[in-house]
Please model this.
Amino acid sequence: IAEQKLHGLLIVHQCSGPRKWQESEIDFTKQLATQVGFALDQVTLLQKQQAATKQAIALNQISSNIRKSLNPKDILNTTVEDMQEAIQADRVMVYQFDPQWKGTVIAESVTVGFPEALGAEIVDPCFAQGYIKPYLKGRVKPTNDIREAGLTECHIKQLEQFKVKANLVAPIVTDKKLYGLLIAHQCSAPRNWEALEIDLIKQVAIQVGYALDQAFLLQQQQEATQQARLLSEISSRIRESLELEKIFQTTVEESLVLMKADRIVVYRFDDNWEGKIISESVKPNWSKIAEIETEVPCFPAEYAEPYRQGRVQVTEDINKANLTDCHREQLEKWQVKANVVVPILVGQKLYGLLGAHQCSGTRQWQESEVEVFKQLALQVGSTLEQAILLEQVIQARKTAETISEEQQKGKELLESQIETFLTEIENSFDGDLTVRANVTAGVMGTVGDFFNAAIENLQQLVLKVKSATNIVSSTTEGNNAEIEKLSGEAHRQAEAIANALQQIQVMANAVKAVAANAQQAEAKVQQANQILQTSDAAMNRSVEGIVVIQKTVEATARKVKNLGETSKKISRVLSLINDLANQTNILALNASVEATRAGQDDQGFATVASEVRSLAEQSASATQEIEQIVEEMQSGTSEVVKAMIVGRKRVMVGTQLVKGARQTLTDLLDVSGQISDLVEEITLSATTQADTSSKLSETMQEVATIANQTSEQSMTVADSFSKLLGVAGDLEKSVAEFKVN
Model:
């Protein structure tokens, strides 16, 4: 048994004759077969380890060779050559898919004598439906014999044309997409593919995918760098001129090279979102739209807003795109199979569209191509914005120059009119208010009309001033004497008010002194009232203490009386004890007599009787002493009761006296309160009088101040009247200088 399978049989033959095999011989043969199985297992394991080591070395070598170059073609050629050598297959090739899942053999290594498959296009209509997902998940398909694999007859014929008897297929995945297949063919005969070979082709396909990812990434970076450089150069050439026609022509010519397209067009909108082709660059052998038509009637107006927001329309096949019939017919007329359309924006406004047409066939546009085309449209929009701005500046400068010339002419005319106007009104500068300016058309006519109105108003004003000056002069001369007399009276009034203010101040000081004395008297009365309240409280406490003493004496008397009653009870008890002692003594005597009669034998009973008699005598003696003490206590108690009665009467008399004193203090406290109220009212009246005197004093001070101010103002008015008389004279002289008639 090797690898848990029946590898063979170990047989021992006896040819010389029959033989009875011993148990030990049978067991030995069995153990020997087991050891042979173990040895075979070790050999197989060693062979597997060597094969795995060889595979790892081969995988490492192939991976190393693959990564020596970042050119996709070199990577694939190295892969098929190294893989054929590693697994000793008749053919190893790479089969690449196109977008429709048709394929082409793009790399091959084949043994001499078998047909070449390089460049062959192979179409499998069932591949897209049944094999894409399994291959994306990493499926590796070994076929040991194509005739026994259950393949369709069509598939077998495709393989037989390349003499294929067995094949091994592994997926090549790049950027999470199925790029193609790495296929090994055995053409000489069917072949049982080993697990290590299957794993090797799977690992190599994975390494090829990684290498292609890096190569494609490098290509994209190089293309992006080249496109950025081309974009920069094209942008520079576009900006060499700010003429719109030249900008558009440079754009379409350079874009044709950049996008490697068959035609580039610029479509310009009008205000109604209709437009036409205004610039075009096309490769030879393709129609020029300008020679067919420039109007584009099929552009939907609802596309304008998406394009304004930056929409980019990429169409790889117009027959599969969601286009209107009119739009598709328009593109077919222009021989377009695929296109890219990007917006041209000028200041957030949709100026037009930049389109790239592919006429030779459908095209899968790369993201980098679309992005660079979009950036080019942005550069065109920026250049157009500068060109339009420059055109606006030039137009504004021309307009400004025209306006400046008109202003210069107007200025010269205005200067001439001003000179004439100043000549006409020259006499008005010397006070002649009868001068008038000529009113003509234009600005100076308005100024002349305004001047005439102002001069006329000034003339009327001077006449009124003359009249008013005469009136002021006569009025001032007539009232000057009365104003001086009024000023003198006001001065005397102020002096009289000042004397009255001094007398009122003396009275106010006296009232304040009375108020202060009243407040001191009120304080003393309140102090006496407080002392009486304290005495009243102390007397109340004395009365309450005496009442307590009275109650205590009465309680003590009751207790002493109770003690007397108790003493009487003790006397009665002692009388009973005394009687009991007498009876006991009698019994003891009787017992002694009986003992004497009994003789010598009852001597102990006689002794007991003697002791009982002795105790009875002691009890009688103690009882008499207690009776004597109780009698003394009863006598003392009676005296205490009498004394308590006398003390109670005296306490009651003292209580009545204290209550009388308390009532007297209460009456005194009431009278003191009344006196305090009267003193408080006096104090309040005195304070009110003091406040009134103060306010009266303040009022008189205000009156004195007003009188002084009145006197000063009267004097000021008198001075003003004198000055007014002088000013009226001066004004009359000044007005006389104007000519008003």
